[in-house]
Amino acid sequence: MVVGVPELGLLLEWQTIKLQLQPICPIEGRSGSHISEQIPLRTLQFQRGLLHELRKGNAMMEQIRLHNLVQQLPQAIIIGVRKGGTRALLEMLNLHPAVVKASQEVHFFDNDPNYAKGIEWYRGKMPFSHPHQITIEKSPAYFITEEVPERIFKMNSSIKLLLIVREPTTRAVSDYTQVLEGKERKNKTYYKFEKLAIDPNTCEVNTKYKAVRTSIYTKHLEKWLKYFPVEQFHVVDGDRLITDPLPELQLVEQFLNLPPRISQFNLYFNATRGFYCLRFNIVFNKCLAGSKGRIHPDVDPSVVTKLRKFFHPFNQKFYQIIGRTFNWP
């Protein structure tokens, strides 16, 4: 492919930037020790622009070789949970110059036809990156899909696994709300949350309802622990990520052995949206899609109470396994 004027300008800009590099970002190896080769932060930030050109198909193989870019299998995966804040977590981690993200949910390990295409197909879905950057993908269905833990283990038994959770009843209602919105867009009717979450025959919590079943975190995590030690998991507080994201992101940086680079400068509260937005630099800001933060329907308080009572013992066991507690009723 012929390099056009914009790409030549990009390369010239790169030559200028190389002369001005100052901050150094030491990237930690998988074992946790610092790799001797260091990557200048400005280099990583510049490469984001180049990676954008690659995605658009505007870069040549010479550029890929020049900047030593590769498509890596992910070193960390956000495995779930659905409606826990997986997209927000991925986008916020992408603020770190040593992190690159797969923009779309790949659904490799939870989709049999995709899995049958093989690991190189999966690699081809990953973004281009510097060899010492961390590639992260997220597919929330991984957490609750039976075959996924073994499949990921076969790919990389030492991979780091991120799980973001919210208060189980709130998450279940959020799950319902997303499905409800989809039905309404198609002018279809849908049951009320109360009718789905409570079995009308027994008046007990309906564990066959997927939104309820997904919120029993300990049941799903136990299946993962057959393949991975608990030390390879980091559980993010999805409720806190909404209200005070920086401490949660700093914990993830530590878990991924990344030097601290995400700061309060990168996060600003948008009063109109009611959520934190992202500031990559002085000119580029980004807010999550408008579909995030849907207004939940009112739910019968007695149903909320019944659900919270149902989830309570599962939550206690979950806390014991992960070594962390949350402010859930």
From TrEMBL:
UniProt keyword Glycosyltransferase, yes or no: no
Gene3D superfamilies, per database record: P-loop containing nucleotide triphosphate hydrolases
GO molecular function, one term: [heparan sulfate]-glucosamine 3-sulfotransferase activity
Alphabetized InterPro entries for the sequence: NST/OST, P-loop_NTPase, Sulfotransferase_dom
Keyword field contains ATP-binding: no
Residues annotated as the enzyme's active site: 83 (for sulfotransferase activity)
PANTHER family registered for this protein in UniProt: HEPARAN SULFATE GLUCOSAMINE 3-O-SULFOTRANSFERASE 5, HEPARAN SULFATE SULFOTRANSFERASE
Keywords: Disulfide bond, Glycoprotein, Golgi apparatus, Membrane, Signal-anchor, Transferase, Transmembrane, Transmembrane helix
Annotated localization: Golgi apparatus membrane
Organism: Acipenser ruthenus (Sterlet sturgeon)
S-S pairs: 277-287
Enzymatic class: transferase
Ranges of residues in domain Sulfotransferase: 74-317
SUPFAM superfamilies: P-loop containing nucleoside triphosphate hydrolases
Any one cellular-component term (Gene Ontology): Golgi membrane
Family, as annotated: Belongs to the sulfotransferase 1 family.
Protein name: Sulfotransferase
